[in-house]
Amino acid sequence: MTGDISATAVSADGTMIAFSARGAGEPIIIIDGATAYPALNLADEELGRLLGETFRTYAYDRRGRGGSTDTAPYTIGRELEDLAALIGVAGGPVTVFGWSSGAVLALDAAAAGLPIKRLVLFEPPFVVDDSRLPLPADYVQRLDAAVADGRPGDAVELFLTAAAGLPAEAVGGMRQSDFWPVLEAVAPTIAYDGRIMGTTMSGRPLPRDRWAAISVPTLVLHGTGTFPFLVSAAQALADLLPTATLEPVKGEQHSAPADVLAGALREFARTGQPTA
């Protein structure tokens, strides 16, 4: 398959997964984090443009977002099946690049044995120490209840305050913005990422067994200007995985631009070695 396209892949449960593909060469699949999808995270398209001479990039709408459908009940296994369907389209094995909680889904996919040859992970949002408050123990349950009660805005607010760490007054202003309905539309999927994160935002060490099966080269990236807890998270993951290399990205934060990340991604996807 060549040329830039927008299409759908069919997951094992019949869910339609919308994706776009750009460029030519070895495949790279991009996984967004909570609430994000390519129409909102324009860096996905920019990465495809910057890498397009050497790689074919696939950016997709995770189930329940953008142009993708959804099928209840949710399980992490179904999201892995979505990714497997896309890898089938790409003709794997593939390099997978995951942003934020999308990085954690990428880890689960590699541990499950999907045909992944390399992982590039940008700031998985683990909380492994006391550098920030952990997630409330009932976080996922509160998200589910808000959506079930027809209060998607409350689910978004809980995510932005408890998970993303924004002050409540800032979120109050966001509720009045034109962008708020876009966030409410993906509110049912926020609990999906909560389930993927599991206990990894509890302030305790990462589980040693969850990703023990991973044997592929893994590049863990974090910005040097990011939140301290994300630096600790990246270091903890790099220490946990024998195949991982840690690479700080000078000056960047949790929303590093595509042109900054493209060089690191290009070199690692080509050689399996970091840029340094």
H and E order? EEEHEHEHEHHHHHEHEH
Rounded radius of gyration (Å)? 18 Å
- Provide the helix percentage: 25-40%
Largest sheet: 8 strands, mixed
How far apart are the termini? 33 Å
Name the structural class: alpha/beta
User: What average pLDDT do the residues reach?
Assistant: 95
Instruction: Name the beta content range.
Output: 15-25%
The CATH architecture of the largest domain would be: 3-Layer(aba) Sandwich
Low-confidence stretches: none
Give the C-level CATH assignment of the largest domain.
Answer: Alpha Beta
- The number of distinct structural domains comes to 2
Supply the number of helical segments. Answer: 10
Question: CATH homologous superfamily of the largest domain - what is it?
Answer: Alpha/Beta hydrolase fold, catalytic domain
CATH T-level topology of the largest domain: Rossmann fold
Shape annotation: globular
Question: What is the number of strand segments?
Answer: 8
Strand order in space, largest sheet: 1-2-4-3-5-6-7-8
Protein name: Alpha/beta hydrolase fold protein
Domain AB hydrolase-1: 46-255
Organism: Actinoplanes friuliensis DSM 7358
Keywords: Hydrolase
Please summarize what this structure is.
Helices cover 39% and strands 18% of the residues.
List its traits.
single chain, 276 residues, alpha/beta, Rossmann fold, eight-stranded mixed β-sheet, 10 helices, 39% helix, 18% strand, globular
